[in-house]
Design brief:
Layout lengths: L1 E2 L2 H17 L8 E7 L5 H12 L13 E12 L2 E10 L6 H5 L3 H6 L3 E6 L13 E7 L6 E6 L2
Parallel strand pairs: 2-5, 2-6, 4-5
Antiparallel strand pairs: 1-7, 3-4, 6-7
Helix pairs in contact: 1-2
């Protein structure tokens, strides 16, 4: 996907969120989306659009110094027989080892199928992420505002 503006990146995220919510994958698993890319490539902008599509009413900012922000989904979103109740936004830029994330209660968060997670800098904890994690790559494009966004299955 090619985005030529912040707004276009957010709109791509909204479409992607709707697609994820319609997916018929295992309903017993937490949905994990890994956002990989250099600083300033649009990971947080994408997350803002995605969270908006989930009905998150709060302003979405990068949790760089907090590591994680938890958002209540105002209207639980039904996917099959599962309702998503919370969305988590992780920014692991300051994490050095997976154990640091585990110490923050990551196993409990990831084991609850009512959660959906977006994780920036996921490569720092790749070995503890589920095998069905959806990976999205963000790259700078040719112009200052252009971004190349690629969904992979790593």
């Amino acid at each position: 996907m090619l985005s030529k503006s912040k707004l276009q990146t957010q709109k791509l995220a909204v479409r992607f969120a709707k697609k994820i919510l319609r997916s018929s994958q295992d309903l017993k698993l937490t949905k994990v989306i890994a956002l990989r890319g250099d600083l300033g490539t649009g990971k947080t902008t994408f997350t803002q659009g995605f969270m908006g599509a989930l009905g998150v009413r709060h302003r979405v900012t990068s949790p760089t110094f907090l590591i994680v922000r938890k958002y209540e989904i105002s209207t639980p979103i039904k996917r099959g027989f599962i309702h998503f109740h919370h969305a988590y936004h992780f920014d692991l830029y300051r994490i050095q080892k997976p154990k640091e994330l585990l110490d923050l209660g990551f196993k409990k968060i990831i084991s609850d199928p009512h959660n959906i997670l977006l994780i920036e800098w996921p490569e720092r904890v790749k070995k503890i992420l589920p095998k069905d994690t959806i990976w999205i790559e963000f790259e700078h494009g040719k112009s200052e505002k252009e971004r190349i966004i690629t969904v992979t299955s790593d």
